[in-house]
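Lab notebook: predicted structure, single chain.

Context: the supervisor wants predicted structures on file for every construct in the current expression panel, including those that have not yet been purified. This is the next one on the list. No modifications to the sequence; it matches the entry in the shared construct table.
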Amino acid sequence: MLKKKITAAFKSNPSAQIYTLEALMALLLIIGVIIFTVQATSLTPLTSSTANAHIEAQLQILGQDMLNSLDYAEYGQDSPLKRDILNWDGAYYTWDSCEYSSVNGDVLTNSSTAEILKTVAAGKGIAHNVEVAWLREDLKDSHKYTYRWEKYIYNGEPSDNAVIITKRILLSDTDFPNMDPSSFRQNTGIRDADTGTDFYNVVDVKLTLWRM
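Prediction complete. Output recorded below exactly as produced.
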């Protein structure tokens, strides 16, 4: 009986059919938009955490490649990274958009590390720090050794999404054929960890990269 009344009402009022169709079409349109939005969100890396993870992975690979290339040496030769450590004067340098300079105005020259960072990192707007650490005798106990960290290239505090890559460099007494080890020690603070052998010290190079 009710069905007959509704049918009769639709027949007597044609505009009711139009309103019903419009409501049905609007409902289908809304459902379609919701489905499309959900699918797009699940397939596209729109969240900040996903984007940050992607950037960090890229920086990790970039930094590793740079240190690997700097640490490569032909047989019988020192790597560019080791030569930079041996030529270091103990000061730290900051990128000023043109070159690396110290607080005294000295420019970092003859440095393969600075050259590759200038070309690869600074050229792409990637902030970077380079620090070095080495073993030293504990001030309270000469039989114990601790690590001392110093800046080589410093451009400020890294962000939370910074990546760190390290390389270890072995220094021997034979690495100073044309250099007085005492001058190197005075400039850098890197001491001979074992004066009774050819072993001089171990230096850890830490490269930190992050996006500004």
